[in-house]
Amino acid sequence: MELWYTEEQTDSVRFSIKVDKPLYTGKSEFQRIDVFHSKEFGNFFTLDGLIMVTEKDEFIYHDMIVHVPMATNLKIKNVLVIGAGDGGTVRELTRYDSIENIDMVEIDKMVVDVCREYFPQTTCKLDDPRVHLYFEDGLRFIRSKENIYDLIIVDSTDPFGPGEGLFTKEFYGNCYKALKEDGILVNQHESPYYEEYAKSMQKAHKRIKELFPVCRVYQAHIPSYPSGHWLFGFASKTYDPLTDIDEQAWNSLGIKTKYYNTDIHKGSFALPNYVIDILANEGD
Ligand code: SAM
User: What is the model's pLDDT at position 162?
Assistant: First the structure.
């Protein structure tokens, strides 16, 4: 008998991966967590039936969410990561000796516990002494923070369930307040391709643009995410990722990456016309 994991990416589109072995299934206070092993993608896990991380393509997402802001400002020392329970974002951040502190706020401890067991590839740096784990709602955590972080990375689920609050105007306003005067905010920005996802990214972009003087969107190809075409938001109080990137300085660090390089950095901000149109058209 064949076993397949099937994800409903829209009402009329499904994406399937042949499963060699189901590894774990559980339900936390916040969401359902499943882990599978597959020949093509290695281990992968889903939250409420949506793929979060696969061993095969996680490097693309984590390279792009971390190295783009880091290469834009290599003086970043204090970082807040919201969500990111699989640990991949923290793993990439710990490659910079210059970073002194990483606060990671994940609402669901069970995600971290399950990932520690099945995803050593991404959780391997969660015990770095610079990393401080907080198991609480990122929306609440950030309310009391003012002028302390150089970089905030929002590595969240989609804008429903526990992740909903992380796409609100209130949250983005609190991120602005928690950032220093030259702070950068990067968030996973959904996909432009299918309508429901495109609406979410359009709304998020509009809200961020109202607050931050620099507001750009960049893209990557992530095969296991809906449509494979994924966006990230880059917002900042001063730095522009296209003019402030110090290519020579970043390359001289000798950080070996499998996806990111400084040419991709610049190229990833070149968007297709239909995406430019969605972003320019403010929606509701
Ligand atoms: N790379 C993934 C993607 O875009 O599909 C995101 C992965 S990461 C596992 C997302 C994490 O955000 C989940 O573990 C979830 O529990 C966490 N999360 C959702 N809402 C949150 C909130 N309000 N505060 C903190 N963490 C949250």
Answer: 86
**Beta-carbon count within 10 A of 34 CB:** 20
Check pLDDT > 90 for residue 20.
Answer: yes
**pTM for the whole structure:** 0.97
Its CATH class, for the domain covering 3-54, is mainly beta
Q: Using CA positions, which residue lies closest to atom 21 of ligand 1?
A: 163
Atom of ligand 1 nearest to the CA of 137: 24
Tell me the sheet residues that pair with 131.
102
Query: How many angstroms is it from 198 CA to the middle of ligand 1?
Result: 19
- Specify the range with the lowest mean pLDDT, choosing from 35-49, 88-102, 114-128, 162-176: 162-176
pLDDT digits (tens, 9 = 90+) for 146-172: 999 999 999 998 888 888 889 999 999
Question: For the chain, which residues make up each domain, given as ranges?
Answer: 3-54, 58-280
d(CA 237, CA 177): 11
58 marked as binding residue: no
Cα(49) to centroid(ligand 1), Å: 14
Please, what is the angle between helix 169-178 and helix 195-209, to 10°? Answer: 40
CATH number at 58-280: 3.40.50.150
Q: Which two tokens stand for residue 261?
A: 């390089």
